[in-house]
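REVIEWER CHECKLIST
Item 1: Sequence provided? yes
Item 2: Single chain? yes
Item 3: Sequence as submitted:
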Amino acid sequence: MDTAQLITEVKELLGNAEMEKALSRLAAFMEGKPEYRQLNRLVLQARAQFQKAQRDELQGLVSTEQSKLNYNQVTRQALQVIEWLEAGNLQPETSFTASRSRLWPKVLGAAFLLLFLVSGGYWWYQSRQAEPAAPLSAACPVVFKASSLFNILIVPFQALNENKLRPHFTIAERLDRLKQDYNIQADLKLYPEESPDSYLITTDDASSRASDCQAQLIIWGTAESFPGNAIIQTRYKFVNRGGQLPLSRLKLTENTELDTVASISSIATSGELTAQIEESIKLLFGLIAHETGNWPVAIEMLEKFETQDSAASLVKGMVLAEDYLASNQEEKAWESYNQVLEQNPKNALARNNRGVLNYKKGNYEEAAEDLSVLLQEDSTDTEALKIRGSAYLKADQLSKARLDLQKARELKAPDRELNQKIEEVDKKIREEEKTKASAEAEIRANPNNLAAWNQKAISSAKLGDYQEAVNAGEAILSRDPGNVDAFVQIIKAYRSAGDTTQAQKTVQRAEATGISRSHLNQIAPFDIKLSPVRTNTIPLKKN
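Item 4: Structure as written out by the authors:
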């Protein structure tokens, strides 16, 4: 298809109010073509803002008037791209393509940093004061632009000693420059220092101030300096979001495609950053881009943000995973959840979402273990029970699969898919019982038949008879001490029963015979390095 045909098709889609299709069609046409790189980036931004507008409207986060304004903004952007495309203007004069090399200048030394923080972006503040002033309200001395999709209020940082640092000027100047460089439809205001109530102490004060000024994000903090050093504590709060930022919860459709449940709370809407100013700005701007629906920019900023603070790391990881998912980068989302769970192993939302992604990747054992952590918090979560039951079924843990699927059916209305899966499990259980009985008959005829012992171990584990699986594996090792398959069956049985201690001891026994962990990993249906989750679904029987 040539450009003229594309323009005609997109105009027709826009005329029929099919914005999502129009923007997706433009993005598909421009993807991978260097000459359209600048326009494509604007299209992706418009699509992200459209999807954000849809999400906010469905969740009731914006008024009807604001929703119309959001959609109109996207429509104007789409029409502007079409106009440029028709005119052959593939590199329009916008601030959208500003060089990234100047965004993050290197710090030239502690003395220079202190001087910069003292002066801050004062020149920026003075230049902003020259802009025509809008009428002020009694409750707030600043007024945001009516066209803004997201309002940011920065309050003067309180100096804790005689060296009056002004990091609020620096933060305001950097955020303002970034929003222009990336064409983020937001407005930023600095609360006047001369106001008697300019400083903030508590989060409640911040919420009240933001509400008075109709801001969606408020930033404040404290600053103190010492010879060659400065301590800046940057605090922020997103308002009109309740107590926590909404993030999506993943689920699977019947065709094992990803779907999302309407947003649920996960991480706090407020926080304190003790990182250097430059790092704090990366996180703040990443969150601003996320809140405005510009996922590519949010990803770019959050990927650059580095911190040792566990709370800030959680915010970064969860929001970054959300934006990867929105951008159809499932593998990167999975990796982001891995990083979150290294520090926060009991995070229920991360466990659910990684569990769903593990299931889609074919990591059924790991999927079941992730969802087990979630179900420890809420054993009546029918969606998690269905997915874990399906994962157990895929992993041939038939007894566990039936327990989960049966419980899910009892907790919810009749479900055709659930009934079919339970029938499938019951059929497999009957078949496995026959296979096990046959193996036991062969063992009685020849106790040294290692293949029969191995089959008994496999069938016993599938049926949830973990102690029998262990005993069968040990029977093999008594006859063949270096049998890899036997070690794997024993480890799997202990792991499935949740006995982490015995599972690790068996790994060590295998290593003592010369079997490496890498070799075990090649034939195990799970990552041997990871500790199993104690589910207590079916306890291991003790002799």
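Item 5: Key structural point noted by reviewer: DSSP finds 22 helices and eight strands in the chain.
Item 6: Recommendation: ____
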